[in-house]
Write a structure and sequence with these properties.
By secondary structure, this protein is of the alpha+beta class. Among the domains are: about 110-190, Immunoglobulin-like (Sandwich); about 480-730, 3-Layer(aba) Sandwich (Rossmann fold), CATH 3.40.50. The protein contains 13 helices and 42 strands. An eight-stranded mixed β-sheet has the order 35-36-38-37-39-40-41-42, sandwiched between helices. The longest helix has 16 residues, at about 5-20. The two termini are about 30 Å apart.
């Protein structure tokens, strides 16, 4: 008879290891390190003269001072009150902010929801304050985006800056609420009054109305089951419109309606197959009402046009045309600005391999010249000064020895002359201009450098004075560790891959630690940290006794067209050839990185990536946690997937499907999904479960009830992820 003693001993050993890991300490790290970064934010209040401003800065926990700046000389005055600075009472009234009441959750009422709208230029972090006063991290809200969060009537939520400054506290109500995060506390959004839909767009002279008519297309419906509703016992169904790759789309027809009621259909030859879910196209009129302009993004995203239609004849001509053998990044890189006075158009394009600006003659439909050039991308246009014929924009990759993702403020004339980089520090920059744009406040930082805030002159970028340098001594003494930046060559042996390494607070270089990679390889952006932040998601995992890494491999954005194109019809690649080389290169000089124990975790697109690691790269990764993954691009939303995978749906979708490759699984896999996920169809995960079962594979699966997208960020999901990584990487 086979002895069971070795099995029992093994189980006891696993239990003792699990008990040796202080999960509560890791989960409590967020609260332990919050509000320990000071002098890291400046919100300027400019006085009427346009040359003087004041701000209030936090100097320590519960302490602050007022600062008055003369922008012309850089002269600085400080005081404990505005009155001491000689400022009028109306300025003092601006300092009244919402009191941050860190009360605990005291009751759990009916199921409800909160929408957070982040209007700041930086990400914020979201925490549930539980009944014991503990801060349970629920991920964050990215800059300029919205997030819907399930909650209960009476549950209390804390919003903090990336460095832990308390921004606001809100409480869930019986009815769903919307809150706006603006850095001045938080305001409750008023429900918008329903507007009577306007039919099309009328010409400036009132002679014509243009609108689109589209055939009715029945949208695909996805049914989500809420298994355990708060009210009642029986499950409830929720049906949502959810268009998937390959689904039929409407083909709108432009119609011109004259004052006398006569109609003219605009020929569809140049816009016969647009990518539009709604069937509605937008028109922009020329000032003289002679023609209107509209966009044509051909389905498949390989042809993009700006078209002009004659208001009298309906004849259509091409103003701008972009083509690509792979894809056109229409969501990020089709910016334009109409110069009506000169009959010109400022246009953004990647036609030379990098995202740059061009000047077009609108009437002729021809390019006059390229405005910006070089092996670097324009990232965002901030301002167009038509009087001075200047463009102000953010760009990255300008300095050979600097991280190519760092953004800098630049300016250039319409004719391409006078290019100037106006910010200097080795970091990524955010700028805010004075009301007359004569001065700018430049806030810059790196993943390993706290914020530096400078006042500069706009005309030449010269430094007036340093306003603040963030102080993080209290953060460091709390045990928080500074991320380490690291660079290694990618698969081609030439391209630099950039990322960060994060150690636990109890790090001992004499020990060896398992490595855990946080992955999100969505082609729409790049994701390794570039700004200074506490990175609580990373640090919480590291605190369990791991080295946490994150990097951006080929196929992600902001590094030029060739780098980006790796993702085309190739989502399964996810930059893994670059990622493995990066981690191996880092370990060569860091013997405390144990590459015999490597795990990976991610959510959404990162969930798809994490599982793919155990399908194609199980020679390197042994453990993966995949949360709410879009495991099959045929199952996910149309706009995101057809952008990178193309149309029609072909074999590339099959090759990138985790479901189709489930039989290749090796290693330890945990699948997590929220049963109420309206972002990625939950069936994307359950179909993977079915395929794994059919293939006879062992794995762990945890659907989380009454939860939407990002289920691994709930308290239960987060704890489950931590325990799984410890169980399989720490024995």
């Amino acid at each position: 008879m086979r002895s069971i003693l070795p099995i029992i001993s093994c189980l006891l050993l696993l239990s003792s290891v699990a008990l040796a890991v202080d999960f509560e300490a890791a989960l409590g790290l967020a609260k332990h390190t919050e509000n320990k970064v000071f002098r890291d934010r400046v919100q300027a209040n400019w006085l009427p003269d346009g040359k003087t401003f004041w701000y209030r800065v936090q100097t320590a926990a519960g302490k602050s001072e007022f600062v008055l700046i003369d922008a012309t000389s850089g002269r600085r005055q400080t005081a404990t009150t505005l009155q001491e600075l000689g400022l009028p009472e109306k300025e003092a009234a601006k300092t009244s902010t919402m009191k941050i009441d860190l009360r605990s959750t005291r009751r759990t009422g009916e199921s409800s929801g909160i929408k957070f709208i982040n209007t700041l230029a930086e990400d914020v972090e979201l925490y549930w304050i539980n009944q014991e006063g503990g801060h349970v991290r629920y991920g964050g809200v990215r800059a300029g985006t919205e997030r819907e969060q399930h909650t209960f009537d009476g549950h209390v939520w804390l919003i903090t800056s990336r460095t832990g400054e308390h921004l606001a506290v809100v409480e869930g109500a019986a009815q769903e609420q919307t809150f706006i995060i603006d850095g001045k506390g938080i305001s409750k959004a008023q429900p918008e009054k329903p507007k009577k839909p306007e039919r099309g767009s009328r010409s400036p002279d009132g002679s014509c109305l243009v609108f689109t008519e589209a055939e009715k297309i029945e949208h695909r419906k996805v049914t989500i089951v809420e298994s355990t509703p708060d009210a009642g016992v029986q499950p409830r169904l929720k049906v949502i419109d959810y268009i998937k790759p390959g689904d039929p789309l409407p083909k709108p027809q432009w119609v011109i309606e004259k004052k006398d009621g006569s109609r003219l259909c605009v020929p569809r030859d140049l816009y016969e197959n647009p990518f539009t879910e709604s069937g509605v196209l937008d028109a922009v009129w020329s000032p003289d009402s002679s023609e209107f302009y509209f966009n044509y993004n051909q389905r498949g995203h390989q042809l993009y046009r700006v078209l002009a239609a004659n208001a009298q004849t309906g004849a259509v001509r091409v103003v701008v045309e972009e083509t690509s053998k792979t894809f056109i990044d229409y969501t990020k890189k089709t910016w334009r600005h109409w110069l009506y006075a000169s009959g010109e158009l400022l246009w953004m394009s990647e036609r030379d391999g990098w995202c740059h600006l061009y000047l077009y003659d609108v009437k002729k439909g021809t390019m006059k010249h390229q405005i910006t050039k070089g092996a670097w991308p324009v990232r965002e246009v901030l301002h167009v000064d038509e009087a001075k014929k200047q463009i102000w924009f953010l760009a990255s990759g300008l300095r050979e020895k600097e991280d190519p993702y760092h953004t800098h403020l630049c300016r250039v004339h319409f004719d391409g002359t006078g290019f100037q980089q106006l910010t200097e520090g080795d970091g990524t920059h955010q700028v805010e201009f004075s009301p007359d744009r004569a001065f700018l406040i430049d806030t810059w930082s790196r993943a390993d450098l706290p914020s530096v805030i400078e006042l500069r002159r706009s005309h030449d970028g010269s430094l007036v004075c340093i306003l603040e340098k963030a102080q993080i001594s209290a953060l460091l003494t709390s045990g928080w560790t500074m991320p380490e930046r690291f660079v290694a060559k990618g698969r081609d042996g030439k391209t630099n891959i950039h990322g960060v390494i994060i150690k636990p607070s109890h790090f001992d270089p004499a020990k060896r630690y398992p490595v855990v990679e946080h992955i999100y390889a969505g082609p729409h952006s790049a994701f390794a940290p570039k700004e200074f932040s506490r990175l609580m998601g990373h640090h919480t995992i590291a605190e369990l006794g791991f080295i946490v890494v994150q990097m951006d491999g080929m196929g992600t954005n902001h590094r030029g067209k060739a780098f980006h194109d790796v993702c085309w019809k190739n989502i399964q690649d996810a930059g893994f050839p670059d990622r493995k080389l990066w981690i191996k290169e880092a370990a060569k000089t860091r013997p405390w990185m144990d590459l015999s124990r490597v795990g990976i975790y991610g959510g959404s697109a990162g969930g798809q990536n994490a599982m793919r690691a155990l399908l194609d790269h199980h020679d390197f990764y042994q453990v993966a946690v995949a949360d709410c993954g879009c495991h099959d691009n045929r199952m996910d939303k149309i706009w995101w997937n057809e952008q990178w995978m193309g149309w029609p749906v072909d074999e590339s979708y099959v090759k990138s499907s985790n479901k189709e490759d489930a039989h290749k699984l090796k290693g330890h896999l945990l699948l997590i999904v929220g049963e109420l996920d309206a972002n990625v169809d939950p069936a994307s995960t359950t179909q993977v479960v079915a395929a794994l079962q059919k293939a006879g594979k062992s794995f762990d699966f945890m659907p989380i009830a009454s939860t939407g997208h990002g289920a691994a960020e709930t308290p239960y999901g987060s704890r489950l992820r931590m325990e799984f990584l410890v169980r399989h990487l720490r024995p």
